Amino acid sequence: MTQAATIGAELAPKVRTLVLGGTAVILHGLNRFTKDLDLWTDPNPTAEAWAAPIEAILKLHPELSALYLDDFTQQWEKVAPGQIALAAANGRIVRLIGCDRPIDLFYQPNEVERDEFNQFWNRAIPLTDGTRLLDPIDLIITKQLTDRPHDQADINFLQAKIETELCRKLPHESYPYAIAQFERFRSANTAFSATSNPDPKVRELGLSVLRNLAAEGDPFASEHLDAIRQQSV
Amino acid sequence: MRTSMPIPSDARERCYIPSKETTRQLYVQRQNLRNKSGKKLRTVSENSVPWSAPPRSIAEALAISDEISRLGDALRDSLFPT
What we know:
The complex is a heterodimer of chains A (233) and B (82). Chain A is 51% helix and 15% strand.
């Protein structure tokens, strides 16, 4: 039976292909099971351009067939070869079946706009098969608001990984680095770690983020601010 | 001195901040544990997160997924033989 991973590797030279979903979480280091393979192939500039490499894969592998998730009915509907671009108009995902696991090809993932593909691609991590792995913060964004328990577990894992990495770097990195990180991810622990940076601008930025988070009701931020106040007394 | 953070408003909308509800739940759990143990608990930044060396291709990632499924089934069969 055709392997989903083989299809992913065959798509990569045809179109820029990002790995999302459970496979992406495993690639970030969490050991867990995933029942399918989620990929976001470049949706620009048109639905026809997005559909062309998928049509090519269907021609190459006649054992595969395609379904799409209808946005209105939320049912999976069959798509005939040559009709993939039309499916993009009615849904955001095409599913290929007939290999060892379903492959969900996104035209537009959850919580993301199609014109963000370039930014996501530029931040993504190259893999050895030619695809790219979504940056962990971008991956969290696609998993927000899905209301599925395993997505919350994935978010907790990714959040801990990002925090650990940032808490290691922010005490030493430059002000532009700190600004860029806090534009994309803010937590009490990362902000607190910036307050030990030798650059006063980074320290003030860390304090500013802590104050904002504390004002919004984050108890960890309040605790860190109390600790800083006690140290300065 | 209190300063505002120089981050543009459009960037704020795309910034990920852990959810207030989850953060509060975590804080309450942590306080309860602290009260029980009487010790200062380590924060995430002080812990080393034990993730393994990540795979580098879709095939490697899916092989891990398959192996986890196989080991899970084997464990269940061994613990609860039918």
